[in-house]
Amino acid sequence: MKNISVRVIIGIIFSAIGLASLFITKQTLMAAIWLSFGNGLILSDLRLTGVDEKGNVFVKPIPKARMITALLLIVFAVALLLFQIFLDFQQPSLQE
């Protein structure tokens, strides 16, 4: 449990919200935003442990490819959020 930080817990919560919104509301764009941001947070900070040749447990460093993927997922979530805002402003208002 030591390798789970606050960012990983928040990422799990965001991913669960995204999955629930996909199943309940069937809004794929909002689900993709939640899931992308949540998975990006999980990938960016999840620390895995390993055992060296002497039997000592150590924390493995986060690979560069995983950090790049996490950053791209978070940027993708922001881009999808901006696209959602754009689509919301394109719809006609109900007060006319």
Summarize the structure.
Keywords: Membrane, Transmembrane, Transmembrane helix. The protein is mainly alpha-helical.
Structure write-up:
- This protein has about 100 residues and is mainly α.
- About 70% of the residues lie in helices and about 5% in strands.
- It is built from 3 helices and 2 strands.
- The protein has a two-stranded antiparallel sheet with strand order 1-2.
- Helix 1 (about 5-25) runs antiparallel to helix 2 (about 30-45) and helix 2 (about 30-45) runs antiparallel to helix 3.
- It starts with 5 loop residues before the first helix and ends in a 6-residue tail after the last helix.
- The model has no long low-confidence stretch (mean pLDDT about 85).
- Keywords: Membrane, Transmembrane, Transmembrane helix.
Beginning-to-end CA distance, first to last residue: 55 Å
Strand content: 5-15%
Biggest beta sheet attributes: 2 strands, antiparallel
Helix content: 55-70%
The average pLDDT score comes to: 86
Spatial strand sequence of the major β-sheet: 1-2
SSE string, helices as H and strands as E: HHEEH
Total strand segments:
2
Please state the structural category: mainly alpha
Alpha-carbon Rg, integer: 18 Å
Secondary structure tally, helices? 3
Low-confidence stretches: none
- What is the global morphology? elongated
Keywords: Membrane, Transmembrane, Transmembrane helix
